[in-house]
Amino acid sequence: MTLSTLALVALFVRDVFSQQSPGAADFLRFGCSQLVVERADPLVTPGLNPSPHTHQIVGGNSFNITMDPYTIDPPKQSTCTSCIYKEDFSNYWTASIYFQSPENGTFKKVPQMANGRQNRTLLEQDGGLTVYYMRPFSGSNKKTTAMKPGFRMFAGDPALRSKTGTYPGICHRCLSKADRLMGGNGAPCDSKDTAAFPSSPCPGGIRATIIFPSCWDGKNLDSPDHRSHVAYAPGSGALAGDKCPSTHPVRIPQVMYEIMFDTSGFADPKYYKNGKQPLVYSFGDATGYGAHGDYLFGWEGDALQRGMDALGNKCGSEDCTSALKIQSGNDAIACTKAQMAKEDVGSNNWLKELPGGATVTFE
């Protein structure tokens, strides 16, 4: 995506949860441009260079293979962030998607694209992903407590290959051409979405969604599985109300990712026959059920708490300049870093195998 295709105005976004009518002041929503695409995962495989599979990473440029909380302080050690909010040096990453040619089995990385606003313009990001920080959409108590330095968590399960055991809030939406600039309307992970990859061509792209837990035990910044210290709030899905279980009593801002994959070049119906589809995650998952995301907190000072506290008071999803500092889209896009282990990840060339050699599995 070239800069000429990006909207070069302030960040004004649309309410994607129109079916739930939460109001514009219930969440922050902003774009983060691509920092780097590489085989690195300091949460699951810290210190391993390269890690087993490719990730797309955004946020502060202090990102490295360890992100040791005792030696790395992202706000102090980052010199820039690829996110639109200048005080957010957190890191956010997910697995990449590849197209596998039915003809010869080679792989090409599916490009990412900027997300859309309600006014049918694009967010200021070159690829990357869209980040949400949400407070409860229901209930009388909407207060949230921002995470602490060193906090990190994981959502999803890369080992899943069937609907059994799938996580709430991990889903894919198939977009038509008409949906492209809107990014798709409606609540995330509703009836329009599937936990698996779409089974038909998506000429407007795929909107992948990852919703993280919203309750914390209040003690541990991490846990061995990167999940046990957090929990989803009670409810029928990932987006719950203002209650938390007694084991995890602290309600934190609920983090959500939207990743826009440009599948327009891979939407020929001939690729979708006999119940098969040609997409595969970088760790070898051809079902889509194993989609997952990693989060590492890195907001400067009390910035995130200020932003969440200001929601509803001249601060909402479209603009929180009353509480937070916004940088230009050009500055966010310019924040990049080199791969730590240089390799061709298939952005421009066809690869004989997935980076890291992951085996493609269908079940």
List keywords for this structure.
363 residues, six-stranded antiparallel β-sheet, 17 strands, 20% strand, disordered N terminus
Report on the architecture of this protein.
With 363 residues, the protein is mostly beta strands. It has one domain. Helices cover 5% and strands 20% of the residues. Keywords: Signal. This is DUF1996 domain-containing protein.
Briefly characterize the structure.
With 363 residues, the chain is mainly beta. It has helices at 74-77, 303-310, 329-334, and strands at residues 27-32, 36-38, 55-59, 91-95, 97-100, 107-109, 129-134, 152-156, 170-175, 193-194, 205-211, 215-216, 230-231, 250-251, 254-261, 279-281, 292-296.
Furnish the topology, listing elements before pairings.
Elements: E1 27-32, E2 36-38, E3 55-59, H1 74-77, E4 91-95, E5 97-100, E6 107-109, E7 129-134, E8 152-156, E9 170-175, E10 193-194, E11 205-211, E12 215-216, E13 230-231, E14 250-251, E15 254-261, E16 279-281, E17 292-296, H2 303-310, H3 329-334
